[in-house]
Amino acid sequence: MESMVEVRSERVQQSIQGVVIQRTRLKLLFIPVFTSILVWACLVQLWHMRLLSGFTRVTKASVRVDETVHSTTPRNYTSNGFLQVSCNGGLNQMRAAICDMVTVARLLNLTLVVPELDKSSFWADPSNFEDIFDVRHFIDSLRDEVNIIKRLPKKVARSYGYHPVVMPPVSWSSEKYYLQQILPLFSKHQVVNFNRTDTRLANNGIPLELQRLRCQVNFHALKFTQKIEALGQKLVHMLQQRGPFVALHLRYEMDMLAFSGCTEGCTEEEAEELKQLRYAFPWWKEKEIVSDEKRSQGLCPLTPEETTLILQALGIEKNMQIYIASGDIYGSEQRLATLRTAFPKIVKKEMLLDPEELQQFQNHSSQMAALDFVVSTASNIFIPTYDGNMAKLVEGHRRYHGYKKTILLDRKTLVGLLDLHHNRTLSWAEFSAAVRQSHEGRIGQPAHRRVIEDKPKEEDYFYANPHECLCESARCEGLDNSTEVR
């Protein structure tokens, strides 16, 4: 009996030992299998993360190539302070200023607050930045260069008792001025407000990467709002359906004549009205102006009558569409009579669009100017009668987008020829030949900017001919790398 019990006990122990051995073997087998599964899972996860990361990088890089002049490396946004800017002037003066201020913010590593637009000038346009430009696109397309915010944080806002330093930077200033004179201000003050922004950055002598950033802002980041762009393109389409067209920036407008002191073609009463307007604006320093002297120096816009003769001399055909890109012509429609007789296909946006379509832009001169800007950049030929900010900015856009024909009128030469023709010293054939010959090299073809030492106001304007942003392509073949100096 005892032997039977011993046998059973031995069998049980053997069974238990077998189970233990089997479990031990299973454990030994499970450990490498589990480890292998864990390793493979980690590898798969790592590969998946790298794939997504690579895809994201490729996508972002593609967007940058599409939206900027040159791809850039994302920056560290360790900000030295906040830069506020209050732009002054009309649409295109403010546009160039915004490009400069973005560049200054990039140079000094500042956080830029979305610029405030001029509401107190002659035009009294109440438009905000977001009424004219696509603010989200502006911020997003520059995020790899400059940190831009819509408004100041509450802790440094005026409403919370904080008062920024308010000042105008020195005109035509170099990189050195901003680094040595402006940057130290931010070590004492969190916020600096530039209350005048026109021509505050030099045309020349700026590092190449900053010049190209100015182009990136101008040609890519500053997009008009969808409603402006859509209506502008509608105008372009309507004109193109009828054939080629000239965009004529006829700057014979009340503000231009008043502030320039140019009264050619005006009656005595009109000349006095313009003078009184000039005196009504204290910020305009030049009050007593001799119109004839200004005109002889080429500093006056051409009159509609003078413009008619110049267009005919240049060979513009009578049946060519002429789109008048301007505000109200001084003297109203009667001043356009001569021009309309010579070129019957004169049109304006008010003639092409329904009143309801333009209603939303009424009393918003900058938004109306934006429509003319869209049409002017798309025209077959662009001819400005005065080299103001719109003329320069449109010229620059037309250079950048393929050197479209822009006839840059040499007014000093032209007024001399016009006077000789009027007093019968020059026949029509001689006059027209002289006009064409004097403009053979003034049609917006590739060229480097002229630099006039110590005379930045007289040298070529950066935004009219940003050659640093153009000469990496076949469009600039044959140009050397130097800047023309005179």
Automatic annotation (TrEMBL):
Q: In which pathway does it act?
A: Glycan metabolism
Q: Which Pfam families match?
A: O-FucT
Q: Which InterPro entries did the record assign?
A: FucosylTrfase_pln (IPR024709), GDP-Fuc_O-FucTrfase (IPR019378)
Asked if the keyword Cytoplasm belongs to this entry, the reply reads no
Keywords, comma-separated and alphabetical: Carbohydrate metabolism, Fucose metabolism, Glycoprotein, Glycosyltransferase, Membrane, Signal-anchor, Transferase, Transmembrane, Transmembrane helix
Membrane topology term: Single-pass type II membrane protein
Question: Where does the record place a coiled coil?
Answer: none
Q: Indicate the principal place this protein occupies in or around the cell.
A: membrane
Q: Which segments cross the bilayer?
A: 28-47
List the subcellular locations: Membrane
Similarity section:
Belongs to the glycosyltransferase GT106 family.
Specify the protein name. Answer: O-fucosyltransferase family protein
> What is the scientific name of the source organism?
Solanum pennellii
- Gene expressing this chain: LOC107008438
